[in-house]
Amino acid sequence: MEERNKSPPGINSQSTVDEDQFITDKLFASIVLKRFKLARILAEGGADVKATLSSGVTPLMAACDAVTEKRHLKKKCEVIFCLLKNGADINAKDKYDRTPLHYACINGCAEVIKILEENGADKEEFDLNGKKPSFYTENELSQKKFSIRTQRDSIATESMMNTNFSYRHWDSREFLNVF
């Protein structure tokens, strides 16, 4: 009986896996480097929009986390729409149980938060810290009471009963290690 999934003579099936990984790596890199037009081309061209880094971060999470100037906001939003249109999971979770909406709220970009909510993002999901996305954008009172600060390379963890802070470290530079 002949195997149907056998590669044609002279073609290494590993090369297509490597090429797919290369394209996926470029998708992450283009988002992090704010080359949003390239990111759209890759996503529309079949790059795996459901791929994850070792931290569980997806291209959609990376786009929601990207800090952009106001002049690039439209392109960033277009990439987010493109990723969603091409099958990105709007409620995917990283290894800290953060969703794209958590990343958008941490980033503080109202336009991205609105896009995600209008497209079905679950506002009730808890992250590893027991926080809903809205916690990261809540009112001034919670900011004063707990002195929460969000850093680009870490997310403060605390509980409502304990004001001693510990930090769950995440390295946003992980996105750049895809070359």
TrEMBL record:
Residue windows of the ANK repeats: 55-95, 96-128
Family matches, as InterPro entries: Ankyrin_rpt, Ankyrin_rpt-contain_sf, Multifunctional_regulatory
Regions crossing the membrane: none
Protein name, entry field: Uncharacterized protein
One Pfam short name: Ank_2
Stored SUPFAM superfamilies: Ankyrin repeat
Keyword terms: ANK repeat, Repeat
Organism: Mytilus galloprovincialis (Mediterranean mussel)
Keyword Nuclease (UniProt): no
